């Protein structure tokens, strides 16, 4: 059991490291500028390893730069969501009156199905990376706030909290020094789940044609390939559709493995919440 | 008492959804006419100011916001969701005409993926930590990493393009005449296999993990040890004690995931051009058919919220402890 956990964790971490390196060093790794135009619909060759698309962009370069867009969106959304979700979760768990209000908002927004709402809002807005990020942020913090709050509710009844209060520790001090460190493992797992969700949801929105047409993520490359009427006729899908699709799959897989390994480490009782949240 | 407060809660949610739907187009940049008169549009309409005012008055957009809101709510209660721009038919009619296909797709796939998920989850938990469990766990974690549209496209490439054993798109063969009803049923099922399989594969993870976790919890309970101490056979314990008790969370999940299924069908129906509501949503997005888009949004969200409400009610019935919270 322990071995499997370690193996999966290392595989996941390895996959993620590769993608992060590709994202950071994209200009050095990509053979061409992704907006440069060559002969369209070229098959893979030594000069264009994955051929060119219908506009004549080098597909490999598009995918390498797409790594930046996809990972950037997932990282920014998850990071801000965790910051907001954790803060509100801590406050909601520690202060009853405010907590009640925050939790009602969380309950209501969580009941509204998020993907349909995101699709509708996204189709009214001009598609852009920042708009997508803003949309994902509306929903990103909710689950974390709820989970952190319920953890704080049990943590604050511990004796050492009472002891700290008695010797004059302020609420802020207790939250910062005694409660926050205890919820960090939960936040890390939530961060990964949110990143998985955002990667999948973003690629889905792109697939519907609601992504940023300029800063092309993996989902957008995939979308344009799907829109191409002759995609199934020849083997074009092999170098135009398969690579961006597999990039999405491997990123999610890497995150899933790391998340699973962390959950098993932090929470050996296995009453895990992992993978409960779906698209 | 609990049920009534739940009812009130869901009523508020529906009200909020309806309000979002009302305010969304009104807070977005531009107004109702700028889309028509935009010089960048495909066919910009030139109109005088008076003509524009007549148009606004016709749609009731010159009235104060509060009056528009009341009219909108009354319209919703009457089932009036407006006119679809692309189909030129009432939105509700367009949606209802597509509903049977989505119901067929969601119904069959839900039944199969829940059953499979329960069986696999129970098998996995029963073999906890052994090879069988790990193999199942890793394969299902991997499968769950595929976006549903990618699974769909891979299936199309393999089964339709390479093997040619299933049709590419649609729910029925176009312009087909059937000599007997059996033939028609076979044709519909033939078109259903791939979309349903795609939905099943992309949703099985949720049920599997829930069942596995729930069952692992049950297996740690004292009554399982009691059952073993009594000398009951392992098979008997598995069927009569473990699976039965582990099923409780699955019941609520089933109704909850009915919602996820509806959003899942958007992508699957799109890949297979399956003529259900999901595909309609895609058309509405690509043709900028906003009335239709909003109608589908309302329809989908209210269905999902309704399913959640039913799930809550069932849960209260099944587990009386919930009442005392």
Structural account:
- The complex is a heterodimer of chains A (279) and B (325).
- Chain A contains 12 helices and no strands.
- Chain A has 279 residues and is an all-alpha fold.
- The model of chain A is unreliable at 270-279 (pLDDT under 50).
- Chain B is an all-alpha fold and 325 residues long.
- Chain B is 74% helix and 0% strand.
- In chain B, helix 5 crosses helix 8, helix 8 (181-219) crosses helix 10 (234-246) and helix 11 (248-271) packs across helix 12 (277-286).
- Chains A and B meet through helix 4, helix 5, helix 9 and helix 12 of A and helix 1, helix 6, helix 7, helix 8 and helix 11 of B.
Q: Which fold does the CATH topology of chain A refer to? A: MetI-like fold
Which structural class best describes the helix and strand composition of chain B?
mainly alpha
- Specify the CATH architecture of the largest domain in chain B: Orthogonal Bundle
CATH topology category name of the largest domain in chain B:
MetI-like fold
Counted by DSSP, the helix tally of chain A is 12
Distance between the termini of chain A: 29 Å
Principal-axes shape call of chain B: globular
């Amino acid at each position: 059991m322990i071995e499997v956990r370690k193996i999966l964790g290392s595989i996941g971490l390895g996959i993620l490291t590769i993608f992060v390196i590709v994202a950071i060093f994209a200009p050095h790794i990509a053979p061409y500028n992704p907006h440069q135009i060559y002969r369209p619909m070229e098959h893979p060759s030594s000069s264009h390893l994955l051929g060119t698309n219908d506009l004549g962009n080098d597909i490999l370069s598009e995918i390498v730069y797409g790594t930046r867009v996809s990972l950037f969106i997932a990282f920014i959304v998850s990071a801000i969501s965790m910051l907001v979700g954790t803060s509100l979760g801590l406050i909601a768990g520690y202060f009853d009156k405010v907590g009640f209000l925050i939790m009602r908002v969380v309950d209501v927004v969580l009941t509204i199905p998020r993907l349909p709402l995101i699709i509708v809002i996204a189709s009214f807005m001009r598609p852009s990376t920042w708009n997508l990020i803003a949309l994902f942020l509306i929903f990103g913090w909710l689950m974390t706030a709820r989970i952190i709050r319920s953890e704080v509710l049990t943590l604050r009844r511990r004796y050492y909290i009472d002891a700290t209060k008695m010797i004059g520790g302020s609420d802020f001090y207790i939250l910062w020094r005694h409660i926050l460190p205890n919820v960090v493992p939960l936040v890390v797992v939530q961060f990964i789940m949110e990143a998985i969700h955002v990667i999948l949801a973003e690629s889905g929105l792109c697939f519907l044609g609601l992504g940023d047409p300029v800063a092309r993520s993996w989902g957008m490359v995939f979308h344009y390939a799907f829109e191409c009427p002759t995609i199934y006729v020849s083997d074009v899908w092999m170098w135009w559709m398969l690579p961006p699709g597999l990039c999405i799959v491997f990123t999610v897989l890497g995150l899933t493995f790391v998340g699973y390994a962390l959950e098993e480490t932090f929470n050996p009782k296995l009453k895990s919440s992992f993978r409960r949240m779906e698209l | 008492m609990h049920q009534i407060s739940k009812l009130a809660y869901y009523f508020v949610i529906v009200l909020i959804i309806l309000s979002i739907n009302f305010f969304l187009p009104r807070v977005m940049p531009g107004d109702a006419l700028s889309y028509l008169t935009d010089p960048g549009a495909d066919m910009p309409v030139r109109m005088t100011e008076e003509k524009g005012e007549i148009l606004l008055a016709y749609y009731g957009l010159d009235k104060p916001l509060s009056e528009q809101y009341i009219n909108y709510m009354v319209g919703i209660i009457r089932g009036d969701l407006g006119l679809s721009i692309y189909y030129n038919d009432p939105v509700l009619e367009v949606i209802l005409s597509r509903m049977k296909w989505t119901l067929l797709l969601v119904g069959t796939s839900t039944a199969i993926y829940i059953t499979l998920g329960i069986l696999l989850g129970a098998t996995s938990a029963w073999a906890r930590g052994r090879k069988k469990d790990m193999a199942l766990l890793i394969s299902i974690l991997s499968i769950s990493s595929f976006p549903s549209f990618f699974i769909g496209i891979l299936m199309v490439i393999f089964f339709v393009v390479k093997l040619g054993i299933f049709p590419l798109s649609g729910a029925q063969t176009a312009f087909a005449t059937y000599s007997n009803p059996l033939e028609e049923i076979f044709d519909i099922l033939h078109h259903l296999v791939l979309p349903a399989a795609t939905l099943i594969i992309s949703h099985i993870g949720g049920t599997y993990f829930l069942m596995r976790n729930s069952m692992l919890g049950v297996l740690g309970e004292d009554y399982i040890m009691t059952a073993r101490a009594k000398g009951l056979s392992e098979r008997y314990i598995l069927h009569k004690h473990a699976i039965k008790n582990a099923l409780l969370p699955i019941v609520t999940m089933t109704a909850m995931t009915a919602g996820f299924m509806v959003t899942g069908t958007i992508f699957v129906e799109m890949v297979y051009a399956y003529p259900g509501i999901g595909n309609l949503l895609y058309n509405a997005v690509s043709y900028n058919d906003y009335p239709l888009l909003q109608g589908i949004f309302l329809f989908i969200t209210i269905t999902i919220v309704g399913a959640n409400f039913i799930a809550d009610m069932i849960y209260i019935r099944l587990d009386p402890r919930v009442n005392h919270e």
